[in-house]
Amino acid sequence: MNINDQTRFNQFYQAYLNELTLQSKSPKTLDMYGCCPRQVAVFFDICPISDT
């Protein structure tokens, strides 16, 4: 992933975790829900979030 995609993914991922935290999800749920976007990004070496 290039630096722009990585930055965009990091921003998305942090916002995603913040939203789950605001919904009072448990730490274990955060870990489980958070692993999927990370695995997609690593496997395909792209940011799963579109530019638009």
How would you describe this structure to a colleague?
- It is built from 2 helices and no strands.
- It is mostly helical and 52 residues long.
- It has one domain.
- Helix 1 runs antiparallel to helix 2.
- The longest helix is centred in the first third of the chain and has 20 residues.
- The model has no long low-confidence stretch (mean pLDDT 90).
How far is the N terminus from the C terminus? 18 Å
- Secondary structure: number of strands: 0
- The number of helical segments is 2
Helix content: over 70%
Describe, in short, the structure shown.
This protein has 52 residues and is mainly α.
Jot down its keywords:
globular; single chain; mainly alpha; 52 residues
Question: What secondary-structure arrangement, pairings included, does this model have?
Answer:
Layout: H1 3-22, H2 27-44
